[in-house]
């Protein structure tokens, strides 16, 4: 396949919407025959984050945001390389929008260049210049619900693979109930989640950061060894380095 065709396949304009405000857009996700048709579903919450304006090209939406916090992993665009399978497709400026579950990309750092969104496809990856790889994957949360989103690999062991996902939750503003209290501003709050792939299983499952819940992810023999290791090493599951440490221990111990 020609490289230019692949590039057309990978990107679609993410800031142009033809529908009126409040009309549902097609749900974001991989379209079987038309990868360029993937938009996030429009909902009342999104209406509070975008405002509709007109320019010479028609109707576009511009990000407004919240009063506190950010939906982005990093506010500024960074450089990264895009791949389809193993084929290198070029270097782009990117930033991960945690709220819309999109990687925004553009060719230059110029403010006037409109960004586009990387297609949500498990064969497509973006590797930052610092070596962090982003990939759109399917996984299960701690309630066994199937979800999809961008995750990065923290550990690539022979038996265990550990992934990280950051999500942004939006909270609407609330007016002051009376003159004695302050209004609550709208805000984005970011949360970190960890996911684990074990052995030959294709499932990527959420790894809880509460000790008791985490141990239940593993069989009894593995959980016993892990519990002892966590006590000996004074593991703090709120620290990324410690989460990596315990999975690296399990991978090296080869307890399965």
What does this structure look like?
- The protein is α+β, with helices and mostly antiparallel strands and 256 residues long.
- It is 17% helix and 36% strand.
- It folds into 2 domains: 3-207, no CATH class; 208-256, no CATH class.
- The chain has helices spanning 3-10, 44-47, 211-215, 220-232, 240-253, and strands spanning 11-13, 50-55, 58-63, 78-84, 87-97, 102-106, 116-118, 124-128, 133-140, 146-156, 160-171, 187-198, 204-207.
- Strands 1-7-6-5-4-8-9-10-11-12-13 form an 11-stranded antiparallel beta sheet. The protein has a two-stranded antiparallel sheet with strand order 2-3.
- It starts with a helix and ends with a helix.
- Residues 2-9, 12-43 and 45-57 have low confidence and may be disordered.
Q: Could you list some keywords that capture this structure?
A:
single chain; 256 residues; 2 domains; 36% strand; disordered N terminus; alpha+beta
Gyration radius (Cα, Å) is: 21 Å
Strand content: 35-45%
Outline, from the CA principal axes? flat
C-alpha end-to-end distance: 42 Å
What characterizes the major β-sheet? Answer: 11 strands, antiparallel
Q: Report the structural category.
A: alpha+beta
Could you write a compact summary of the structure shown?
By secondary structure, the protein is of the alpha+beta class. Helices cover 17% and strands 36% of the residues. The longest helix is centred in the C-terminal third of the chain and has 14 residues, at 240-253.
């Amino acid at each position: 396949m020609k490289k230019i065709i692949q590039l057309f396949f990978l990107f679609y304009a993410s800031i142009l919407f033809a529908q009126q405000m409040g009309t549902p857009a097609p749900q974001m996700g991989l379209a079987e025959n038309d990868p360029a048709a993937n938009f996030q579903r429009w909902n009342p919450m999104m209406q509070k984050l975008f405002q509709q304006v007109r320019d010479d090209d028609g109707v576009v939406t511009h990000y407004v945001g919240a009063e506190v916090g950010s939906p982005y992993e990093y506010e500024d665009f960074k450089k990264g390389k895009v791949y389809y399978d193993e084929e290198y497709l070029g270097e782009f400026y990117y930033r991960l929008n945690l709220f819309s579950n999109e990687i925004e990309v553009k060719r230059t750092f110029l403010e006037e260049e409109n960004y586009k969104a990387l297609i949500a496809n498990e064969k497509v990856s973006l590797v930052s210049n610092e070596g962090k790889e982003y990939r759109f994957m399917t996984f299960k949360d701690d309630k066994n619900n199937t979800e999809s989103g961008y995750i990065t690999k923290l550990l690539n062991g022979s038996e265990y693979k550990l992934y990280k996902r950051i999500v942004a939750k939006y909270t609407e503003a609330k007016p002051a109930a009376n003159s004695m209290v302050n209004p609550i501003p709208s805000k984005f709050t970011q949360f970190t989640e960890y996911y684990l792939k074990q052995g030959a299983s294709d499932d990527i499952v959420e790894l809880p950061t509460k000790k008791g819940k985490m141990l239940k992810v593993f069989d009894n023999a593995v959980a016993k060894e892990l519990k002892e290791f966590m006590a000996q090493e004074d593991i703090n599951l709120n620290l990324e380095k410690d989460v990596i440490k315990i999975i690296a221990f399990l991978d090296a111990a080869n307890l399965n």
